[in-house]
Write a structure and sequence with these properties.
This protein has 2 domains: 279 residues, UDP-N-acetylmuramoyl-L-alanine:D-glutamate ligase, CATH 3.40.1190; 130 residues, Protein-Tyrosine Phosphatase, Chain A (Alpha-Beta Complex). The chain is built from 15 helices and 17 strands. The longest helix is centred in the middle third of the chain and has 16 residues. It is globular and about 60 Å long. It starts with a helix and ends with a helix.
């Protein structure tokens, strides 16, 4: 309850949810003694795969005995998820104390919600100067609150695609603009670029960062992977090849993210050994990203059928999600809820050979599109229906033995699933 009261105060500090500028976060961090200058960090920017890449890095680093601080967004169930220090989420009391300390220093000055949370992370992270920080960039990066580091160990660029277009000027809602915002201001250190789709995106990234003096590493040019038989996949870079067990996360696109994580950690020469990688990739905690639900109230409704949730919410996310779905030989049922600012028709066009689609409302999210309006947008897709709640949607689906149920379209919807379950 105390945490919620503090967060409510944070939300009132600025009239806008997002206000792209670095001035406020710089001023607040100066009052805090510039904690961002006292940490070692790997920055992760991109559109899709940021959290998955961070979690792969984190899992491998923990196997190697390296203490980490981790900053991600958004959270799925609790705000505490965004604040990991010394390999542990902060408890409610510790987090409330941290928030109150930074709140006092801020002295009621205007600052956005994300900015003050970022300042809180930097302030706490500086208390662990020997830890490695994994920091996920928020919106776009160039004017993102995380982009006030003076130096870092590396910048990872995950898959870049169109998303959050409502925050761009009307005449600049392009992939070129998004690539510029995400990559034109990367620090001079090491840049590791993940697999991009289409290839033209990679060429545009290379052009944008060509004047950056960093050491640059690109998927396929400097590191790669291939899927093997018998539950193995193969990773290769200039340090040699690794025959690796299949990770504990689903989908080939996760192997792309894991390969980017491995490349980064080997490039940085952190003392990571092969057995750390092999064990680490089998212990990745990747909530709401093709997550298998094994038990709980909603799982009881699904019975013995495969039950997955995945927060993919843009066109490229839909593409890689459906590459995984195509690999499954079963009837597939999909429940979808989305935010209003997404490209709904482009998202749904990637779903092929789906037995049924049910749209739902996302509760307690005023910026979500209603399930009824979403159904209308999907009217050209076969077997589309609407139900008000997730429970009603599940109960309405005729699940046969061996079917798949997938709930997707928004991390907020996945959060609701996990809370209900």
């Amino acid at each position: 309850m105390k945490l919620q009261k503090i967060l409510s105060r944070f939300l009132k500090l600025h009239k806008k949810e997002i206000d792209l500028s670095l001035d406020r976060i710089i001023q607040l961090c100066e009052k805090l003694g510039n904690p961002q200058d006292k940490i070692e960090a790997i920055s992760i920017v991109g559109t899709n795969g940021k959290n998955s890449t961070i979690q792969a890095c984190y899992s491998i680093l923990k196997e190697a005995g390296i203490k980490c601080n981790v900053y991600t967004s958004p959270h799925i169930q609790k705000i505490n998820e965004r604040f990991v220090f010394n390999n542990q989420q902060l408890g409610d009391d510790e987090l409330a104390s941290l928030f109150e300390e930074v709140e006092r220093v801020n002295a009621n000055n205007p600052v956005t919600f994300f900015e003050i949370l970022t300042a809180c992370f930097f302030h706490k992270a500086a208390q662990f100067p020997d830890n490695l920080n994994l920091i996920e960039a928020g919106l776009f990066h160039r004017f993102d609150a995380t982009n006030i580091l003076k130096n870092n160990l590396a910048s990872i660029v995950t898959s870049i695609s169109k998303d959050h277009l409502d925050w761009l000027p009307e005449n600049e809602k392009t992939i070129d603009k998004i690539i510029f915002e995400k990559t034109s201001n990367l620090l001079n250190s090491n840049i590791i670029v993940a697999k991009q789709y289409p290839v033209s995106t990679l060429e545009k990234i290379k052009k944008t960062i060509q004047q950056n003096q960093s050491n640059k590493y690109f998927f396929n040019d400097d590191f790669s992977f291939s899927s093997g038989e018998n539950e193995f996949f193969y990773y290769e870079d200039k340090f040699g090849g690794l025959k690796l067990p299949k990770p504990n996360v689903l989908g080939q696109f996760q192997q792309e993210n894991i390969s980017t994580a491995i490349a980064t950690l080997r490039i940085l020469d952190l003392g990571i050994e092969d057995h750390h990688i092999k064990k680490g990739i089998q212990k990745i905690d990747n909530v709401a990203r093709l997550q298998k639900i094994e038990s709980g109230k909603l799982k009881d409704l699904v019975k013995d059928n495969l039950f997955l949730i995945s927060g993919d919410h843009n066109e490229d996310g839909a593409r890689v999600l459906n590459e995984y779905l195509k690999s499954l030989n079963c009837r597939k049922h999909v429940i979808i809820g989305m935010m209003d600012n997404k490209e709904h028709e482009k998202y749904i066009n990637h779903f092929k050979d789906i037995t049924s689609i049910t749209t739902v409302d996302i509760k307690n999210q005023p910026n979500a599109i209603s399930g009824l309006k979403l159904r209308e947008k999907f009217r050209n897709i076969p077997n589309v229906s609407y139900k008000e709640s997730i429970e009603d949607a599940i109960k309405s689906i005729n699940l046969n033995q061996g079917d798949l149920l997938l709930i997707t379209g928004s991390l907020y919807l996945c959060s609701e699933v996990l809370n209900l379950n």
